[in-house]
């Protein structure tokens, strides 16, 4: 099968967006408080510019979020780094990401965790993310579905990461956490603002911690074919 997207990836994968640009981004991330060396090394290596349209590739390593179509965005490097750092802190074996989007966060997780599952509700974004990840040989399992339901067939997860903002945390997701597992999610705080929260499960106890302010697109229900 001929995939035009793969021709473009192969052409763009060779150089253009240089190692120096990535190194600058990683220095900035360290200054901004990212402390996990594994995450920094990974982001210095992996081609974030392949996860946006060619016209935006030059801006891929800037300190900003970028549009990926369908009104969705690839989060700024700091946010992706922070979520990844929080997700892998306790050495999870199996992770669920909700909102594959471009697939960039999925790529990072798949380099650090044995089993990565990722759900996206917009089929066209899912297809593009799947092509990029296959091209980069990232072994994540992806599907099109409403992520508010989690991925019951693959549960329990040691970490669940939401990359879209929930109004309330879907109960199904909490149920799919393993004992000792963590959920990282942006949640609306009522005044139009959002906070990143971390929920840790111990048996039937769910302990919630509020972290920094963030800005994400909303978590929506249903699937867009
Ligand atoms: N992690 C992504 C961020 C994408 S933005 C990246 O690195 O590019 C958030 C994504 O969540 C969007 O693609 C949006 O379509 C998706 N999303 C929103 N609600 C969802 C839901 N209920 N289930 C699955 N995906 C959802």
UniProtKB/TrEMBL annotation:
Keyword flag S-adenosyl-L-methionine: yes
Enzyme Commission code(s) on record: 2.1.1.77
CDD domains cross-referenced by the UniProt entry: AdoMet_MTases
Keywords, alphabetical: Cytoplasm, Methyltransferase, S-adenosyl-L-methionine, Transferase
Record carries keyword S-adenosyl-L-methionine: yes
Chain positions covered by the region annotation Disordered: 1-24
InterPro entries referenced in this protein's UniProt entry, alphabetically: PCMT, SAM-dependent_MTases_sf
Enzyme class: transferase
Catalytic activity: [protein]-L-isoaspartate + S-adenosyl-L-methionine = [protein]-L-isoaspartate alpha-methyl ester + S-adenosyl-L-homocysteine
Basic and acidic residues bias (residue ranges): 1-10
Active site: 75
Chief location bin: cytoplasm
Subcellular location: Cytoplasm
Family (UniProt): Belongs to the methyltransferase superfamily. L-isoaspartyl/D-aspartyl protein methyltransferase family.
Task of the protein: Catalyzes the methyl esterification of L-isoaspartyl residues in peptides and proteins that result from spontaneous decomposition of normal L-aspartyl and L-asparaginyl residues. It plays a role in the repair and/or degradation of damaged proteins.
Protein name: Protein-L-isoaspartate O-methyltransferase
Gene this protein is translated from: pcm
